[in-house]
């Protein structure tokens, strides 16, 4: 068994990150040379130099990024482009709000039911493009885009039309009661700033909660599904070669639908977690599609669609965003982070080139190879001769 | 009748940018390169051209200014699309990835730059770029006197409408009646065969992507000018809708026209149903009308997608070494 780990994707991601950072620094230098170095330092270290709270915020930002990245990445593995993560996220958020605001009688399991319902709605929203693709040959990219808008208007309409769900004053979904929020597992206390003011300990806790744990568990589960189960193998086979997998007896349509259902479920779960995390996040009644699903594309691409890779790429991008938050102390707008991430993604598209460069370096020099081939040929000739002589 | 005229005028405002951008996408995809970056290209084109409108508004106005802006939008889109071309054609990169990167870069860059420029020109660190809309044509002489059609097409309109129609006509001719068009289509269907026949596949694909960039850039400007008085690094997802229109339109100019008309009409209906007594009296929530274009598109796709006419080699990097 030859099971050598291929490190190329990892190396090309690192190379892409370096390129993105270099270009980001150049842009900072051009726009404001006097503060460029300090600003760039803040991007790189802002999240850690602001204490444990900073790290907690990174974990909080990373939660939806990882989950939406997993959603997109999982679909990628089956050869599907889930650009509808935003719609699925929004449906999940809506599910969370619905349970969080209307099902007080559930008590301590309310948040669990809320997350399950969010997952269910997300799965449903993912199932639609899956079914349309499998049985009606509708391109999933376009049906996903359409469903993003449909979910946007549906959710806005339902929330606005229901007094229980709607906060009229702020034009957003009503506040979720504390009893319905997902547990923090003490994470917010671990990742917190402790300062002493007037002889008293003041804890300024971060927004992190058990969502990040859920995200990591989901990533590990997906990794197991993809790498260790027949089902995952079938999904990947479909993604690599539809025709061949059909000949191998794999039900292609079933794979497409299930893959989209799972992708949708994860994005929906992300929506549920964000709305039930009790950090003041609401569904705003605007005609704007939430950005999470699109960010998920970046995370998935940087993590080369590998669930474990996505954990790290999600953490990394969240780390940059958190750094960008502190960047506003200088005269830079936080959009520079998006610029850097975009450049990183752009360079990660060049994986093929990096692979070629790597193989150039790692391979033996061609002359030596040639000599070896000639030697082998010579040996074979000698053997042939010997055989003939023996025969004679 | 007035209602219908009004609806058609509204439809044109919504459909023309979609039409232009989808036609752009068509050139790229038919040459074999998937261009998911249309949204980013629109954003970039709109950004530089509206910046031009903003900076020159003290001494320029009217349609001359707008036409220069359109040229700027086209050049911007073209240059920006070169990044996609470089990645997709020379470096054989995953076309979704570089497209996504372009989509992400454009709004961030527009906001970042707009803030810097605004703080220099007006001393405020805001991301909106304002412009004065002096481009509306209330009446086209002579043509507006034609009954009905004159009212629909030649009153309360923008020069961009005619530019859109012109682009449609030119695109159809280029695609079907020229040597270049034939070569472009060949590259999208079977680049290896095309290469064997002596066509420089990379060159043709570069041309396809650059045309899509230029048209998407124009589309961005055309979308913003009639609907707003400032640019906020946003084209309401029209680039993605244009991809939908392109697929819906089966990668063919005439169907793209139909698809964008359908979508524009539905959009116009949802935007102005309150002024149509019959629809207003139905007392349906506005959100339902907003949803209708998207639901209708999905439904139509269910019935029309069984045989897809996607260019066969679209999205697959062309590699001479293969086969």
Give a structural overview.
The complex is a heterodimer of chains A (392) and B (323). With 392 residues, chain A is mainly α. Chain A has a single domain (15-359), classed as ABC transporter involved in vitamin B12 uptake, BtuC (Orthogonal Bundle), CATH 1.10.3470. Helix content of chain A is 71%, strand content 4%. A two-stranded antiparallel ribbon of chain A has the order 1-2. In chain A, α2 (36-49) packs across α3 (51-77) and α3 packs antiparallel against α11. In chain A, 51% of the residues are buried. The mean pLDDT of chain A is 86. The mean pLDDT of chain B is 88. Chain B has a single domain (2-122, 146-304), classed as ABC transporter involved in vitamin B12 uptake, BtuC (Orthogonal Bundle), CATH 1.10.3470. Chain B has helices at residues 2-30, 38-55, 62-90, 95-121, 149-153, 159-177, 179-189, 191-196, 201-227, 238-248, 253-272, 277-281, 286-304; strands at 129-130, 137-139, 155-157, 230-231. In chain B, the strands form two sheets. Chain B has a two-stranded antiparallel sheet with strand order 1-4. By secondary structure, chain B is mainly α. Chain B is built from 13 helices and four strands. The chains are: A mainly alpha (392), B mainly alpha (323). The interface between A and B is large, with 47 and 49 residues.
